[in-house]
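Before relying on records like the one below, remember that each one covers exactly one chain. Contacts with other chains, cofactors or solvent are not represented anywhere in the record.
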Amino acid sequence: VTVLGDMLRKAPNEEEPVHEVEPNEYSIEEQQRYVFERLDTGRPLSFRTLVRERPKAFIIATFLAVLEMARQGHLHVLLDASSFDFQLQKREGVTLSDVQPASVNGASPLV
């Protein structure tokens, strides 16, 4: 038994299995288009509804897109304190061509 223990301790360690994960990359510009298209009805839409059952990267990129669109003055953001959510509504008269892409050092960031 001692010999077996020594052999096992001296044996090379097996490599850990490697699992490849394909990243889901979403540009903020793509998500700005997505948000704009979803808000084109003119009715408010909750952020939860906008990102329901989507991957984390999608949710983060969409949130950043909403922040950028609000910063540019293209969205109304209505806080709903009772449900930990917020409503989004496109400002009247805003078109997709008004929405400027977010940029970091001249490039559209990916999440």
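The helical segments are 2-10, 28-38, 47-51, 56-71.
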